Each structure stands twice: as C-alpha cells, then as structure tokens.
C-alpha cells in the first residue's frame, strides 16, 4: 500500500492484536528478507544489507525538514538532544555550545562540515514515536533511535562498536559504510560500547557498501563500523536500536542474588559455618597445594552452587526484567478509534459555567479490553502485587518514575483474565472478582489510567 510510513502505521492501526502489529512492522523493516531467515542467520551473528532500490520506502518517517522544524520550534537543546560532531585526520571532536539549538547556529555548524546527531527523535516526531512504540513489543526490550545528518564529503564519528543491535535506515542521500568483525572473543556481543578506535586498529571490513535512500543495514553489537559521506550527497539516516543489557547474564545478575537469599532462608546447608582451618589451605597462596582438604572444599562449593538452581525464582527475576522494560518503554500512540474508546477521548469538559460529561459510567455490560498486550505487567514483590503500566511514560527516556498500581490480591485473577482474553473484549460482569462492585471498581481504575478501552465509546458524543 501507499502513503509511506504514516500510511503503513494507519494500516497497522487496523490490526486488532498489538503483538501482530509489532510482528508485521518488523517484517516490513526487514523486507524482502523474512524475519525467520534474519533471526536464524543474522541476529547477533552477522551484518545484513538490504538494497531496495526504492528511495521512498521510508517516506514520512523522518526528514531533514522535520529536524529543521524541531529547531525552529525552539525545542532542541545542545547536549541534551543534539550533538555537533566532526572526525577529521583521525580526531573525533564534539562542538556543542550550551543552551538552545537554534537554526542559524546549527546550520552554520553543518555548513562548516559538522555532523548533527539528534539523540531522541521520538520526542520531536510523532511518527518516529509511533514507529518505535509498536516495534518495542516485538523485541521485548527498549527500542531507541538516533538520527544522523552528515554533510557531503565528511565523516562525523570515529570507528567504534556499540552495545546494541543496530538497524540503520537510510532516509535521504547516501553514505559509504564499512563494517568489521569483532576483533576478539571478548568483543563478541559486548556488554559496553567501545572507545573511539583508530584506523590502524581495524582489520579488513567484512562489509563495505554505499547505502542509498530506502536501504537497510543491520549489524550486531560488537561489530565495528564507520560511515562517511561521498562528495556529491548529504546523508540522513536513523539508527533504530535494541537489546541493550538484555542478555542471559543480565537475567542471572537479578536471579542469583535472589536464589542465594532464598537458599539461606530455607536450607541449613548454606548457613553452616566454614571449616575452622580453611584459611590455612584455601586462598591464592595455597592454590597450587596438593591437599585433600582443598579438594573437599571445592566440591562443597560446587555442590552448593548446583543446589542454588532449586531455589532460583526464575519467574520473579523475569518479571523484574519486564518491570525494567516497561519503565524503558515509550507510551502507546493511540489510533483515532482507540482514543474515542479510552479515557483520552472522554468528553468531560467545562461548558456553560459547569463541568459536563464527567461520570465514567461503567456497568456489568460494558465490554472492555487492554489497550495493547504489552502495556501492563504483574509483578509479585515483597510489598505486594504491583501492576506496572506504560500509559503514563514519557517520550523522553526515564523522564518519569516507573508507574504502577498496588493491587489487592482479589484482583490478580482479573488482570490475568484480561491478558489471556486479549485482543477480544470481555464484559465487566465476567471479570473473576467476588462482587459486581469490585468488578466495576477495577475496570474504572484501569480505564482512568488509560490501560483499558471500551468496545463502544462510554459517552456517545
């Protein structure tokens, strides 16, 4: 279909299930490569180049005119939102003044050969926000973006690798890219980004290409990359990123301390004292000693570590990962019909000297569903059962604290029922609470937080 990215987002808005919406957008991002082929051959393994020969593929996602508009609205600040950078003769520099990034100053930097990196395009572009907010449900991990505008014949950044999976979408012009394999095993899927590297530290590229408008370049974290503009064209691209700190190791960082705490509470073997003379035969100074007591000590440690598995609260640790993800999430972008069926389209207003249409009248027959599947997460915590949600998040990363409702235990089954029923509507009367009063109370709270939509607008305007 036509209409560029806004048209695509409108079509996806008619897909009932947010998980399917996310999967279809992911498919569009990779097309004509099938997601299954991408995940099997490239994800976390190898770069992928998709040449489309279609300059309009990303039309309407983001443009230099959109950047100019944000500058002219006075919304952009140096450092916070915009970096001015250059890379020449092996030297990478940042040239950020302080304060507001106004057009005459920014475009003067550009004319003098500096690159412009917009750090949070989703805060300035509704389309980028909408695009990323759908995609984040596919990854189950924060999806961020930066845009890069580079003048002809220049390079803005030194070669480096990142700690994220990178999808480079070429929006305007073209750019010459070189991508290099990780240099050592330690740099495969690294936990942190690298410092700036010198040309002498690089081997031969595994991929060298000129990316043109409509093309896609993917590379995993740890793959060194550099891009420079050819003399005859500027370049604008957006890098969509995900999977920062989303590894097995990060899960275990949450899980193992919790497992050990439970083991200490429940199993006397973990509370028994160490041997009185263990300092005499253990420790680095004794590491070469051939001593039966060392062997026994090592075996005891190994057996206690193996036993930890029995105490590992895996689901609770996964819920903590999900809680972090929900805090990282962009808030949902509502379609016109979703807005009409939610608190955001509710027609309460001041009119003729008094408020009108104030009462949210939910009855046992009101048909409800979650706004989207990824919008809430139940977490069992020491303080009680918490329902984390994304509807009140900011478009700026972590500008808001995590948002949650503390739930009375009698409501837990109803949340699970809403999640398992999605994307179908259910009537409030069918929520598995004891009393009708509780059912209506829960539905009203969730509706007021923007978490629920109703099948028909509650007030016909």
UniProtKB/TrEMBL annotation:
The gene is Riox1. Binds 1 Fe(2+) ion per subunit. It is an enzyme of class 1 (oxidoreductase). GO terms for molecular function: histone H3K36me/H3K36me2 demethylase activity; histone H3K4 demethylase activity; iron ion binding; peptidyl-histidine dioxygenase activity. Gene3D superfamilies: 3.90.930.40, Cupin (2.60.120.650), JmjC domain-containing ribosomal oxygenase (ROX), dimer domain (1.10.10.1500). It catalyses: N(6),N(6)-dimethyl-L-lysyl(36)-[histone H3] + 2 2-oxoglutarate + 2 O2 = L-lysyl(36)-[histone H3] + 2 formaldehyde + 2 succinate + 2 CO2; L-histidyl-[protein] + 2-oxoglutarate + O2 = (3S)-3-hydroxy-L-histidyl-[protein] + succinate + CO2; N(6)-methyl-L-lysyl-[protein] + 2-oxoglutarate + O2 = L-lysyl-[protein] + formaldehyde + succinate + CO2. The keyword Nucleus applies. Belongs to the ROX family. NO66 subfamily. This is Bifunctional lysine-specific demethylase and histidyl-hydroxylase. Its main location: nucleus. It comes from Mionectes macconnelli (McConnell's flycatcher). The lineage of its organism: Eukaryota, Metazoa, Chordata, Craniata, Vertebrata. Residues 114-259 form the JmjC domain. The keyword Protein biosynthesis does not apply. Its EC number is 1.14.11.-. It is found in: Nucleus.
């Amino acid at each position: 279909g036509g209409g560029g990215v806004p048209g695509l987002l409108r079509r996806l808005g008619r897909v009932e299930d947010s998980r399917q919406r996310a999967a279809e957008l992911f498919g569009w991002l990779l097309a004509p490569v099938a997601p299954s082929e991408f995940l099997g051959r490239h994800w976390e393994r190898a770069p992928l180049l998709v040449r489309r020969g279609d300059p309009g593929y990303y039309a309407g996602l983001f443009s230099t005119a959109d950047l100019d508009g944000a500058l002219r609205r006075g919304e952009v600040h140096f450092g916070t939102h915009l970096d001015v950078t250059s890379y020449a003769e092996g030297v990478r520099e940042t040239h950020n003044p302080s304060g507001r990034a106004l057009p005459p100053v920014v475009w003067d930097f550009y004319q003098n050969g500096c690159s412009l990196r917009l750090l949070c395009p989703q805060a300035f572009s509704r389309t980028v926000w909408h695009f990323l907010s759908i995609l984040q449900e596919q990854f189950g991990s924060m999806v961020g973006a930066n845009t890069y505008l580079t003048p002809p014949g220049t390079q803005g950044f030194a070669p480096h690798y990142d700690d994220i999976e990178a999808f480079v979408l070429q929006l305007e012009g073209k750019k010459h890219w070189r991508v290099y394999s990780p240099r050592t095993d330690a740099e495969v899927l690294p936990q942190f980004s690298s410092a700036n590297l010198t040309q002498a530290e690089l081997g031969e590229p595994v991929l060298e290409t000129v990316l043109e408008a409509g093309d896609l370049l993917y590379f995993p974290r740890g793959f060194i990359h550099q891009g420079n503009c050819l003399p005859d064209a500027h370049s604008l691209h957006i890098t969509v990123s995900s999977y920062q700190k989303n590894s097995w190791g990060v899960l275990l960082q949450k899980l193992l301390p919790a497992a050990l705490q439970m083991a200490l509470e429940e199993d006397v073997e973990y509370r028994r004292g160490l041997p009185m003379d263990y300092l005499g035969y253990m420790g680095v100074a004794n590491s070469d000693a051939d001593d039966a007591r060392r062997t026994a000590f090592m075996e005891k440690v190994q057996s206690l570590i193996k036993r930890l598995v029995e105490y590992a609260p895996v689901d609770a640790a996964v819920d903590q990962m999900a809680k972090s993800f929900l805090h990282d999430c962009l808030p949902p972008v509502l379609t016109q019909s979703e807005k009409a069926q939610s608190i955001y389209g509710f027609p309460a207003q001041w009119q003729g000297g008094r408020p009108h249409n104030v009462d949210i009248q939910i009855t046992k027959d009101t048909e409800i569903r979650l706004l989207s599947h990824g919008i809430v997460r139940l977490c069992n915590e020491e303080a009680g059962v918490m329902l984390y949600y994304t509807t009140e998040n900011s478009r700026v990363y972590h500008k808001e604290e995590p948002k949650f409702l503390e739930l009375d235990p009698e409501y837990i089954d109803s949340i699970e029922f809403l999640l398992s029923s999605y994307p179908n509507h259910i009537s409030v009367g069918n929520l598995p609470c004891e009393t009708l009063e509780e059912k209506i109370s829960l539905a009203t709270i969730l509706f007021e937080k923007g978490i629920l939509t109703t099948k028909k607008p509650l007030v016909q305007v």
